[in-house]
Amino acid sequence: MPLEADAARCGTAMLFEPGRGLHPAFKTGALAARVAAVDNRARTLESDNFLIHYSLRAWHRVHTEPGDSALVRAADSLFTLLASLPDGPRDSAVYARLDSAHYPHPAYILKTRDYFESARAYYVGTLGMLPPSSSALSVQYNVSPSLNRKFPVDVVDVGTVDSFFAGETYAVTYPPPDLSIAFENDFICRTSLDANGRIRGDSIKSRLSGEVIHNYAAEWELGIKVTAFHEFYHAVQFTYIPRVTTYHAWYEISATGMEERNAGEVNDYLQYLPCVLYNHERIPLTSTLQGPCTHYPMYGQAIFHQYLSKALDSAFDVRVWDQLRRNGDALKDGLETAFAKYGQSMATLYPDYASQVFFAGKRFRPPGPSFTSDIPLWPNISMDSVDLSSAAADRVITLPVLTFGVLKVKWGPKAYARTLQAKVASGITRIHASADTSIVEHLLETRIALGPPRDGFDAYYLVLPNPSYTEKATVEIKESDAQFYAYPNPVRTLAPATLYFSQGRDMAFPSQVRIYGENGRLVRTLEFTSPDQSMTWDLHDAGNQTVKPGLYYYRLAQESLKVLVVLR
């Protein structure tokens, strides 16, 4: 599948140098000098919490629908009537007359108001986050100083007001002291005006694997909704952190996660997933750098935010931003302090997240409900493979911080058991999966026996997470230094209740395996009859009763006893 090289984006991240603070061109006091439209007058829709400023002419003419035709005719007539006035006074006079005549606002502006009010109601009213407020009446337009002080949203052609945002840019949230939002007027980019003053350009679209998900110039209401929820969350973030010195990935991860939570039908985030799911073993979760697909994968990493809203609760991110406000915007501490409130940590959450992301796409059937119903829509996750019949199976896998690998383990006719030794990587998951069924085993140890797959499967998969913020992880596959293992260990009596035994390379056949209870009583005797046999134990004793949780011992022939832990 192709990567989405030209995925549309939020302009806010462009204001900051990756992993650093505000771009020098946007330091305090420099913003007005970048704005080409500063002399334009605007019409204003005032709502409970917002001032929505917009234009009905030239570059910044807001999108209108057939239902707005009376307003458009009136505005065009007034512009013609007042043509002798200079631009600024003419614009002001037109909009004053439209307001005094009580002409309605365009559908595009009414929807913009509705979705911004909905975003504020959710973030501030429902979640209890800090309400953004701005000292600016407008950044892009000249407006009446008598307007009430509310949060300004300037609806403009984003790429025209500043060529820095040329391309498929939805909107820009400027941080304090110019806290405001420049919002795309029609979801058309790289614009020009034709001889009749009509806007021409390219539609802003979201795409997945070359297929268009949405054309926002046509489906403008979806574009307004997803952008309003995303950008107003940036305004909330800047209320917690008024002076951003390090623009870390959580700014975009959380804004995209909240966008998907509140505008789930839009699925704009899907366009960023190929970069993440095809490169999960080399793109750190919190990277702010450009990915191999030429855009920034932190938008796609929002699936971790989606996961956390299910694994913790819908208000977990309030705790994150509360802590970031207290600790000077230190991300690791902000996340870990928030996770600790739930008795969790990155070390416990990230491995579980990685094992669920394994089921991206339609290749395998998840064993239970996922953290998002969208997971079948995702691209299939990429994976490496190891054939235990080959000498080339012995290898070392290196995982950067906060990444995970997926390894397909194949067992051929000449295969023999090997040992997987993990350093730093923890919470490894073994998955036997097919299109019909999946069995997930969470492995507690970092030294794992690689043996044959379960009956009915020709391979199994290992999800290898590195939940560390600072240390690289290594996973080494090598010849077994002990020839015989039971796995998984510990094993649970809950379904699937099966224990596997790996064969040693030089094992004699037949060979018996005896399992003893903690009191030394013989619980069960099993037998390897041939090199082709996959030895399993169903955790039943000789009387066909499920064994109780506890400590057990097992032994092959006359070898020394090994310990087995059985959990409920």
What would a concise description of this structure say?
By secondary structure, the protein is α+β, with helices and mostly antiparallel strands.
- Beta-strand percentage range: 15-25%
Give the overall pLDDT as a whole number.
90
Tally of alpha and pi helices: 12
Major sheet characteristics: 5 strands, mixed
Describe the global form.
elongated
- What is the topology, as strand order, of the major beta sheet? 1-2-3-5-4
Whole-Å distance between the termini?
43 Å
Overall domain count: 4
How many strand segments?
26
Measured as a percent range, the helix fraction is: 10-25%
Low-confidence stretches: none
What class do helices, strands and sheet pairing give?
A: alpha+beta
> Radius of gyration from the CA trace?
30 Å
Description:
With 568 residues, the protein is α+β, with helices and mostly antiparallel strands. The protein has four domains: 12-62 and 106-269, no CATH class; 66-105, no CATH class; 380-481, Jelly Rolls (Sandwich); 482-568, Immunoglobulin-like (Sandwich). The chain contains twelve helices and 26 strands. It has helices at 31-34, 69-81, 87-100, 107-126, 158-161, 220-240, 250-262, 273-277, 302-311, 316-327, 331-340, 346-357; strands spanning 43-46, 50-54, 151-156, 171-174, 180-184, 188-193, 199-203, 205-208, 211-215, 384-387, 395-399, 403-410, 418-423, 429-433, 438-442, 447-450, 459-466, 473-479, 486-487, 491-492, 499-501, 511-516, 522-528, 535-537, 550-556, 562-567. Helix 4 packs parallel to helix 6 (220-240) and helix 6 crosses helix 7.
